Amino acid sequence: MAKRYRPVLRDQPMLLPVDMREWLPEDHLAWFVLETVEVLDTSGLERSRRVGAAGRAGYDPRMLFALLVYGYCLGVRSSRVIERLCTTDVAFRVLCAQDPPDHTTIARFRAEAGPAFAGLFTQVLLVAARAGLARFGTVAIDGTKIAANASIDANRGGDWLAQQVAAMVTEAEQVDAAEDAAEDADDGTAVGDRVPGSGGSGRRQRIRAAAEEVRRELARREAVRHAATEGALERRRRSEAGEPVRGRIPRGPHHLAEAHAHLAREIGIHQAKLDRYGGLLAAGRKPMGRPPVPLEASVRVVRARRVVEAAEAAAASAPTPDGPAAANLPSVVANTTDVQSRIMPTRKGFLQGYNAQLAVTSDHLIAAVAVSQSTTDQSLLLPMMHAAGLAAARCYATSGDDRAHQIGTVLADAGYASDANLAAAGPQRLIALAKRRDQAKAATTEPASGPPPAGSTPRQAMDHRLRTREGAALYKRRGATVEPVIGNVKRILDRFARRGLDAAASELHLAATAHNLKRIHRAAPA
Fold first, then answer.
1. What is the Rg, in whole angstroms, of the alpha carbon atoms belonging to the chain?
2. How confident is the model over 20-76, as pLDDT tens digits?
3. Number of H helices, E strands in the chain
């Protein structure tokens, strides 16, 4: 047992070594971030900074970027928290060289330098390639919904937005009239020539932008609806002309009419069979094969009658324009806080945000990211495959390792399954066609081997490959490849701080850069 306690000398002049290189271990993440930033081309960051004018000297953009990236590595995104850590945390004090910037400078730098973050993300990926990482043998693509800096309760329909815009126009006209009257009076109180204010928080501009967003979405939906109606009308005309029509009858104003035409065609076809059979018997000839069943027993006629009954029931239960459905919420809304954000469905409900897409290599490096307004993933697979292919080509040009930086197989879950994605040109891919449990059961109970049978459709060929031993084993890597990376990114960025699609994309690139830097530091600290 010690004889006394260690002395507590709070008035000691020097508590830290004189040399800042002795403050942190040599293998600390902060030193690695600084060394990596030094070898990057940061000319894109410098374009957003101004030097040479009068006033206080600005902060080095490389220092601000290193400070921001290190904060994201630790899951710290608040500019106020980063400012506080620059005075209380040793690593942050090293990064800013004991010249801490204020939170306004950090937030403004993140906004102004946002367009350069995508290029810096690519450069960090090339650093990983030179370090022997970024293995593209298997690339897993998946998406996750990230909340925007907006409330879901701030969504408004077109009628409300139109009223607000009309009220703003009326108010502007009244202000103009009052200023004109004051100038005409010329009693010394005229304010028409005064410098206007700053314009507030920009709520009016956001309301106008939201109204324009709703108008464009309504126009797009109207164009889609018009095209679908024209296609349904063409189907109905062909069906009424007796021509065969494939596929289900589309819902809409022509649904019932095409159902009746389909029933009439089936009745005519079966009645022709009955007439032909009766004509052969009347002529004293013996028909070959089974006699046709009665008209009411025909399977095709019975099925067509059911389609007609279902169409009649749907037409009878359709809401009228003045019915209860008119009081429901508008189908097209826009958010008055973040106009470009969308209502995204998730397993835990709905959130106001964006759909973030990630392409992850087999060694858990992020090869490509994207932010979309689409609530589904099907239309995003091919762009992400293209982005991953470009990243692999850049890594190959840097390291020259063709085997490591060539995409072997792309793995994706059932959310990307579509005929277009299955049949599109590109690298080999494994896309799930069912839930994980059902797919694993099919691979066990109905195993397959060899290449898909000749003449198989893209969906049948994919089902065959997923039931082979090699395909099932390879697809199992999907979850272990991309889902941990998504979890790490969500720890770094669980909510976007900036508003707008481009701003969210730049912030996601920053978070992906932080993830890759941590990955490189752990895998190859030397």
1. 33
2. 777 888 889 999 999 999 999 888 888 766 665 566 778 889 999 999 999 999 999
3. 18, 8
Cα(493)–Cα(508) distance, integer angstroms:
8
* Biggest CA pair distance of the chain: 127
Residue pair 345/352 in contact by the 8 Å Cβ criterion = no
Please tell me the distance from the alpha carbon of residue 118 to that of residue 370, in angstroms, as a whole number: 10
Nearest to 267 by CA among 306, 295, 303: 295
Q: Work out the number of other CB atoms within 10 angstroms of the CB of residue 312.
A: 14
Q: What is the DSSP letter of 57?
A: P
Phi then psi dihedrals of residue 320, to 5 deg: -85, 160
Q: What is the dihedral of CA 61, 63, 69, 73, to 10 degrees?
A: -170
- Given phi > 0 = left and psi -120 to 50 = alpha, else beta, which region is 24? beta
Q: Which residues of the chain have pLDDT under 70?
A: 1-2, 9-10, 12-18, 48-55, 158, 161, 168, 172-173, 176, 179-180, 183-201, 318-331, 524-526
Tell me if residue 352 falls in helix, strand or coil.
strand
Q: C-alpha dihedral over 515, 516, 522, 523, to 10 degrees?
A: 150
- For 115, which DSSP code? G
* Mode of pairing for the β-strands spanning 349-360 and 342-346: antiparallel
CA 263 to chain centroid, in Å, comes to 44
Q: How far is CA 136 from CA 199, 209, 362, 366, in A?
A: 50, 41, 6, 11
Tell me, what's the pLDDT at 52? Answer: 53
Residue type, 409: T
Copy the structure tokens of residue 487.
């979890």
Phi first, then psi: what are they for 355, rounded to 5°?
-100, 110
Find all residues with CB under 8 Å of 260, minimum gap 6, and list them.
308
pLDDT in tens, 384-434: 999 999 999 998 888 777 777 788 899 999 999 998 999 898 899 999 998
Taking the C-alpha atoms of residue 371 and residue 380, their distance in angstroms, rounded to an integer, is: 10
Q: What does the block give as tokens for 439? A: 């797919």
Query: Which residue, 396, 371, 411, 378, is CA-closest to 502?
Result: 371
